[in-house]
Design brief:
elongated; two-stranded antiparallel sheet; three-stranded antiparallel sheet
């Protein structure tokens, strides 16, 4: 029997943070296609829709519907059912994926912003499931888009009392390749939290306010919420 370890989403210790909660498996955490770009995901969704496997609108975001469509396609075509668009699945779909960043994704973000986002991911979520690391980056980007927060990555991360890893200096640690990959995935449109603005670790959070938020999804040690 295959083991499915339930992951819970995300780890960023915010003094004001909350999480979105929804269980994610280790297998789902690895579903990143070549290039990790919105362009590639759009290509996969478009082809799967042509073949009748993907029923909703093409949006270039790697969500549960895309994952299910890929797995169903793999099952019908006698491929390994892992939800990953590797070389064999790509060939069976009869598409060619690119290895670079799309202009709508991380390619349009400055290297300094990418580095800062990766540092935040590493400081807040190293050791967490990969999906949880992407979720932390997504929360930062969701805040950038929200009128409730500063409109830049640096503004969000360095907002007073927002991230404890800024206060204790962990934000200055050197991020690893996984943190950079997670940051790029979030910049390319992957948001495992579906719009959450907060996350926290229930084992360490002391803010009464954060506990008042409705948890939407959990990944690893973190809970996520929209507020």
């Amino acid at each position: 029997m295959k083991k499915r370890l339930t992951a819970i989403i995300l780890s960023v210790c915010l003094c004001f943070g909350a999480l979105c909660i929804a269980s994610v498996t280790d297998a789902e955490a690895k579903n990143i296609i070549k290039g990790d770009t919105k362009q590639n995901i759009t290509a996969v969704q478009t082809r799967l829709k042509e073949l009748g496997y993907y029923k909703i609108s093409v949006d270039g975001i790697w969500g549960s519907k895309t994952l299910a469509a890929v797995k169903n396609f793999q099952r019908d075509y006698g491929l390994k059912v892992d939800g990953i668009v590797g070389a064999n699945t790509e060939k069976a779909l009869k598409i060619t994926l690119s290895g670079g960043s799309s202009s709508s994704g991380s390619g349009s973000v400055s290297s300094s912003n990418l580095n800062l986002l990766a540092r935040c991911v590493y400081a807040e979520a190293r050791g967490e499931p990969y999906t949880g690391q992407v979720a932390v980056a997504a929360v930062v980007l969701n805040r950038v888009r929200s009128p409730k927060f500063p409109n830049t990555i640096s503004g969000v991360i360095y907002q007073p009392l927002a991230f404890t890893t800024v206060a204790d200096g962990q934000i200055n640690l050197t991020p690893n390749d996984t943190a950079y990959k997670a940051a790029r995935d979030a910049l390319n449109g992957w948001d495992p939290t579906n719009g959450c603005l907060y996350y926290y670790n229930p084992a360490t959070a002391t803010s009464k306010w954060i506990w008042s938020l409705k948890v939407e999804l959990k990944i690893g040690k973190h809970s996520f919420a929209r507020a």
